[in-house]
Amino acid sequence: MDRIALRPLAKVNLGLDVVGRRDDGYHEVRMVMQTLSLHDHLVMEKQSNGRVSMKTNLRYLPTNQNNLVIQAIELLREEFHITDGVRVNLKKVIPVAGGMAGGSSDAAAAIFGMNKLFDLHMSRKDMMERGVKLGADVPYCIMRGTALAEGIGEILTPLPGIMKCGVLIAKPAFSVSTKKVYEAFDSLKDVSHPDIDGLIQAVQDEDFEGIIQKMGNNLADVTKRMHPVIDQIEKEMEQAGARRAMMSGSGPTVFGLFDTIEEAQSASKAFLNRKDIGQVYVTTIYNAKGR
């Protein structure tokens, strides 16, 4: 195999609870992660000149060692003594710096691609162990599906897949700094905690209504104070028919869950061509169960 085309998938947090801060500065979390069908396009090709090169459709994205895809490739080239180079073409669709693990998913796909291109014979566990060296979300992006993430996000427990539904994605026309969001969170005196255990039980019971009721993200209040439009988008999605709308990760992307993909498509019209919203997508749950 000399060429492979991959689809790095987006994720959202159905639940996100920051439960503490460690001495090393990292935060302990409990999150229920969910993969979506929304994806980037990543093509990797061997090149005999020994160089690693990268092109993207976004001018502002780094294509050097500051990109996790390049870091993933170089990590494995060094470990497995690979002398061939790799040419990468990345088309970004997942919002950048939007709380949807786009960069981590691209890195996960690059690890998978290297494994196939160079017959490295790594198991999924092997790939996840390499992935955590690049970022806490990368192992989950290799595993995919519905999962409880603990620790700094690297301790993963698979959960049953959730039910099929429509998902509307709206990213405001700006990005947020995860570092600044966590710094603001650390200054809070009173912190609310979503019911992650209740959410897990609802997932296990295949209780869509329970999932809707138990969803929560205790970073959202912090990010919304910085950018009130996030709260406005959530409310507008629910007025447009979303069973629940919520910010993903540290933001600013908002996702809404709808009973059907057709309802999500209909609701999306209200968010198109708005100056305060940069990207709008309609997608669905990856590997969803029927309802």
Distance between the termini: 39 Å
Task: Tally the beta strands.
Answer: 13
Structural class: alpha+beta
Low-confidence stretches: none
Helix content: 25-40%
Molecular shape: globular
Proportion of residues in extended strands: 25-35%
- Radius of gyration, whole Å: 19 Å
> Within the largest sheet, what's the order of strands?
8-7-3-2-10
Mean pLDDT: 95
Biggest β-sheet strands, sense, barrel: 5 strands, mixed
Number of helices, where a helix is a run of at least 4 consecutive DSSP H or I residues: 10
Helix-strand string: EEEEEHEHHHEEEHHHEHHEEHE
Notable features of this structure?
alpha+beta, 10 helices, 32% helix, globular
Architecture blueprint of SSEs:
Blueprint: E1 3-6, E2 9-21, E3 27-39, E4 41-47, E5 52-56, H1 68-79, E6 85-91, H2 102-117, H3 124-131, H4 138-143, E7 146-150, E8 155-159, E9 166-172, H5 178-186, H6 196-204, H7 208-214, E10 216-217, H8 220-226, H9 229-239, E11 244-247, E12 254-258, H10 261-268, E13 277-284
Parallel strand pairs: 2-10, 5-6
Antiparallel strand pairs: 1-4, 2-3, 3-7, 4-6, 7-8, 9-12, 9-13, 11-12
Helix pairs in contact: 1-2, 2-3, 6-7
Offer a quick outline of the entry.
With 291 residues, this protein is of the alpha+beta class. The chain is built from 10 helices and 13 strands. Strand 5, helix 1 and strand 6 form a beta-alpha-beta unit.
Description:
With 291 residues, the protein is α+β, with helices and mostly antiparallel strands. Helices cover 32% and strands 29% of the residues. It contains ten helices and 13 strands. It has helices spanning 68-79, 102-117, 124-131, 138-143, 178-186, 196-204, 208-214, 220-226, 229-239, 261-268; strands spanning 3-6, 9-21, 27-39, 41-47, 52-56, 85-91, 146-150, 155-159, 166-172, 216-217, 244-247, 254-258, 277-284. The strands form three sheets. Strands 8-7-3-2-10 form a five-stranded mixed β-sheet. A four-stranded mixed β-sheet has the order 1-4-6-5, covered by helices on one side. Strands 11-12-9-13 form a four-stranded antiparallel β-sheet, with helices on one face. The longest helix is centred in the middle third of the chain and has 16 residues, at 102-117. It is globular and about 55 Å long. The mean pLDDT is 95.
